[in-house]
Amino acid sequence: MRKDLHEIEVPTDEVFQAIHLGIEQAQQLEIKAKRTKVTKRMTCFTSVAAALFLASGFIFTPVSNVLAQVPLIGGIYEKYQMSIGEQIAHEQLLTEMSLIANDQDIQVEVTSVFYDTAYVGITFKATGAVTNTIGGDTAPEAGFTYEMFDGKDTSTWGGALGSLTKTENGYTGALILDVPANVTEDVISFPITFTHMAGVRGEWSFDLAVEKLPIKQLIINQQVTSKNRELSITFDEIQIGRTNARISYTANFESTIEGQTYTFEAYNFHGEKVNFNQISNATLLLELPKDTTSIKIVPVLKINSAKTEQLKPITIDLN
Question: Quick one: fold of 216-317?
Answer without folding.
Answer: Immunoglobulin-like (2.60.40)
